[in-house]
Amino acid sequence: MMNIKQWRARMKWSQREAARQLGLTLKGYQELERGTRFATGEPCHVDRRTKLACLYLESDPGSHLPED
């Protein structure tokens, strides 16, 4: 099971930067870290594509989007 908050800490990124690198909204990323949807309180999980993107970004530092 992937802990996206620990991944972000290893990357030394803010939530905003992690969301940008993964192509997510900040709110969507925050929900993944929290594990629940803000609006409903329903559980949410890191999907396979996001897990793969995290692994790719961590394994290849040259793959990061340039900073704005």
From TrEMBL:
Q: Which CDD domains match?
A: HTH_XRE
Give all residue intervals belonging to the HTH cro/C1-type domain. Answer: 4-37
Matching entries from InterPro entries are given as:
Cro/C1-type_HTH (IPR001387), Lambda_DNA-bd_dom_sf (IPR010982)
Entry protein name: XRE family transcriptional regulator
Q: Per the UniProt entry, what species is this protein from, by scientific name?
A: Marinobacter halodurans
